[in-house]
Amino acid sequence: MAELDVDTLLLSVGADLPWLIGYEAMPLERLTMFVCPREGVPTLVVPELEAPRVDAADGFTIRPWAEHEDPIAIVASLVGDGYRLAIGRQTWSRFLLQLQDVCGGSVFLDATTITGPLRAVKEADEIDALGRAAAAIDTVIMAMRERPFAGRTEADVAREIADRILEAGHERVNFTIVASGPNAASPHHEPGHRRIEVGDPVLVDIGGTLDGYCSDITRMFSVGPARPDLVEAYRVLVDAQEAGVRAGTVGTPCEQVDSAARQVIVDAGYGEYFVHRTGHGIGAEAHEDPYMVFGNDAPIVAGNAYSVEPGIYVPGEFGVRLEDIVIATDHGPQRLNHAPRDIAMVD
Question: Tell me: the pLDDT tens digits for 249-259?
């Protein structure tokens, strides 16, 4: 905050608040706001009926507000004469607009300029949490390699996966992409009523939150033997992912991870079918800094956690993707996911 000349940090809904103090604000019409001045004791302004959910405060005070009080006025009084205010980017616009009205000539900045770089470098306990989440999601993938797919709808398979994510210890399911046949050519396909048939490729991209940290993995399945064109594209994809993983050494610009994976796909003639970045940071959120994408020349640092997930998507035909979570270390990149990376043949 001192380096960026920020007087007060304001955090409401979103991942920044639980990452910083361990309390997750409910997305309500009632305002919760953590007011953290550059100097002095921070205050959590919280609806009175939500205050019992806050663990005993350590390093900050709690200011419950009653239904007859104006929480915006309370926050404004705590901000005081602060001129440069950094506010969480997921704060509801209604609250931001009200704060802008009452805080006069204050300049509002994106709090991610402060919290993003800090959250991007994981400490040992965070890496341990990510490792537990990765191990749990690996067990789900392993279980699905033994399950039947043919004759079931995508939605039915997705429901089973969601149940297994929770059974594996996750507190919540973040997403379950089950895309069969030509639907796999849509990277973020929503599982629907399409019935999976023998001969179909099935792209499965799943993740949840365990102990406050996210898991994320993508694996390919085939109902019966995989079709030759899929096998060939997937062979290229495996090489591309390996190149992307190996490129993630400390000090290397993030964009080099993207270019290393992409070049393999381009050289094999599939370049036009790789339509997204190679990876995203992961931690308290499924997508956060750092992003492995062209134009991001920020250097990788030890403690960065991110996905490496190149994909090839041929419209109307098929799609393939392979994703693992990687931790950057001084000894080289380390995968957290260890589920087999072949195309799993299922009934």
Answer: 999 999 999 99
